[in-house]
Design goal:
heterodimer, A: mainly alpha, two-stranded antiparallel ribbon, 14 helices, B: 2 domains, binds adenosine-5'-triphosphate, binds magnesium ion, branched-chain amino acid transmembrane transporter activity (chain A), Branched-chain amino acid ABC transporter permease (chain A), ABC_transp_permease (chain A)
Chain lengths: 320, 241
């Protein structure tokens, strides 16, 4: 939150983007695919971090925003035959609208009540998806046909099933959201969000309408999560109700806690870390969830601020 | 001249306790008004009602001719009512600079550049003597400096009415002298409502004094009148010879 070293911060973020770009040419096929998926889900984590990290609102219902984007985009392709950009926009719109409505209702509460209310809304959303099985495919989900997952740009058409196109699309989305988060965090609006997290009462007494500011944050957060969901549907070709289940509300919380709440790069690091811990341990033992659980407990005990949060606290105070 | 602030029959109960009890109060623009009274007299509750931090049980508040009784606190701040907390309430994890930048960035109506925020924020820190501590986390400032930061945040709001709730509590004598000069300067551009236990400070600064006791206004007048008032002697001044 300091005014100092904006150049350093931007250089670091651009550096991370360049590194991810370069990795596309050297990674073996398996890791290449995994990283594309991780980048899309890191966007989900960044959206979650916006609300949890910066405003201090702990939601247990963000799976509904992710799946609003997932189903909004996926069903637009499957049932309406929309093009990829139009379907992506539909996913964003669904997420933004849902976030606005949920925000208006849930922000009447705070703390534990906010957690419970968001979780209940997400559960309702999940049940609605199952109930509307005729359109959503119920618990089986639906496959977005390969033939429809083609991005037409002028005279060239890019098949999103092509690994390189998929990786680069994920990277573009990730980069936009990352730089946007950095800009918001460093902006005056970001300063107000942190002030609300630190002391909402005091922020009101400085003349801020904290409700409106929080509502805007819920909408931004929900829309980013929906962008992740929409990209997931279009790039990986599957929409399913698991993504609306409570598991997918808790995952972004874990990713953000691991990487470091209220750090711009923490969501990527957390998502990356968790994916690889699961990936590596599941190769050795079927009890890999136990190992993941132990890893999480150790991290929370020794790095309560997450990986990047701890690094910032101990060594690099300028990290945004 | 019409008052900047008036309250009519303003009351607030906490359970059975009438913390503020039917207060009729008027404050002229440009005035420095001190509010004194024993602990628990209802001074903080009274100014909290004015600032909108708490809701009245009954009564009415008029600011600059408009009824603000039902306005939320943030809207009153935007009208120009700034409140500094009796219990220091700075953003401990943010730097002193960010603490002041928050009110500054909202009040800037023109020149919304980064430079404008920086200039006004540093100006508010300089007026309170905190400029060289701008990049310290507020929580690491000494208690006295946190009190001054509270005042700087109030100043940065460019208020028309600045409410100071026991600002000198915990300040060293040298800091108090500076503080008196600061309030005099603030009063050139704003009306000041000052709750204060330190009688020398009150006597030096106040144009008029309002004495609270048990939720009611016991007396009001110039410092000389209040000093001479026998009832006030009993209720309050007698306890601090
Ligand atoms: N939120 C609250 N709930 C219950 N009682 C309260 C509350 N706030 C204040 N009171 C009570 O109202 C009365 C007036 O309190 P208030 O803080 O306004 O007094 P004060 O004049 O500011 O005192 P001091 O000089 O100690 O700051 C006290 O008896 C106090 O205990
Ligand atoms: Mg008080």
């Amino acid at each position: 939150m300091k005014e100092a070293s904006p150049a350093k911060a931007y250089a670091l973020h651009v550096g991370v983007i360049v590194l991810l770009f370069a990795l596309s040419f050297v990674l073996p096929e398996y890791h290449h695919g995994l990283l594309a998926r991780i980048m899309v889900l890191a966007v989900f984590a960044m959206g979650y971090n916006m609300l949890f990290g910066y405003v201090g609102l702990l939601s247990l219902g963000h799976a509904m925003f992710f799946s609003a984007g997932l189903y909004g985009a996926g069903l637009a392709v499957i049932h309406l035959g929309w093009s990829v950009p139009a379907a992506f926009a539909a996913g964003l719109a669904c997420g933004a609208l849902l976030a606005l409505v949920i925000g208006l209702l849930a922000l009447r509460t705070s703390g534990v009540a906010f957690m419970i209310v968001t979780m209940m809304f997400a559960q309702v959303f999940y049940l609605i998806i199952l109930y509307l099985a005729a359109w959503t495919g119920g618990d089986q989900g639906l496959v977005v046909p390969q033939s429809a997952r083609v991005l037409v740009l002028g005279s060239t058409s890019l098949g999103l099933t092509n690994p390189t196109v998929r990786y680069m699309s994920a990277l573009v989305l990730f980069s936009i959201v990352l730089l946007m988060t950095l800009a918001v965090v460093r902006s005056r609006y970001g300063r107000v969000l942190v002030a609300i997290r630190e002391n909402e009462e005091r922020t009101k007494m400085l003349g801020y309408d904290t409700f409106s500011n929080k509502l805007a944050a819920v909408v931004v957060s929900g829309t980013i999560c929906a962008a992740s969901g929409a990209a997931y549907a279009l790039l990986f070709g599957y929409v399913g109700s698991t993504f609306a289940s409570v598991q997918y509300s808790i995952l972004p919380l874990l990713w953000v806690l691991l990487g470091g709440a209220a750090t711009t790069l923490g969501p990527l690091i957390g998502t990356l870390f968790m994916y690889y811990v699961v990936d590596i341990t599941s190769g050795y033992t079927s009890a890999y969830l136990l190992i993941v659980g132990i890893a999480l407990i150790l991290l929370v005990l020794f790095f309560p601020k997450g990986i990047l949060g701890t690094i910032r606290q101990r060594w690099l105070g300028w990290l945004p | 001249m019409t008052p900047l602030l008036t309250t009519k029959g303003l009351s607030r109960n906490f359970g059975g306790l009438r913390a503020v009890d039917g207060v009729d109060f008027a404050l002229m623009p440009g005035e420095i008004r001190a509010v004194i009274g024993p602990n628990g007299a209802g001074k903080t509750t009274f100014v909290s009602l004015v600032s909108g931090r708490i809701q009245p049980s009954s009564g009415m508040i008029v600011f600059d001719g408009a009824d603000i009784t039902n306005l939320p606190a943030y809207a009153r701040v935007r009208l120009g009512i700034a409140y500094t907390f009796q219990i220091t309430s700075v953003f401990a994890n943010l730097t002193a600079y960010d603490n002041v930048a928050l009110p500054v960035q909202r009040t800037l109506t023109d020149g919304r550049s980064k430079g404008a925020v920086h200039a006004s924020a540093m100006a508010a820190l300089e007026r309170t003597g905190l400029a060289d501590r701008a990049h310290m986390p507020a929580g690491q400032l000494s208690y006295g400096h946190q009190r001054l930061l509270e005042v700087a945040m109030g100043l940065a709001l460019k208020p028309r009415l600045l409410i100071l709730d026991e600002p000198t509590q915990g300040l060293a004598d040298s800091e108090i002298d500076n503080f008196i000069g600061l309030v005099r300067e603030i009063a050139k551009s704003a009306t000041v409502l000052l709750i204060e236990h330190n009688m020398p400070v009150v006597m030096q600064l106040a144009d008029r004094i309002t004495v609270f006791n048990a939720g009611k206004i016991l007396a009001e007048g110039t410092p000389e009148q209040v000093r001479a008032n026998a009832e006030v002697q009993d209720a309050y001044l007698g306890t601090t010879p």
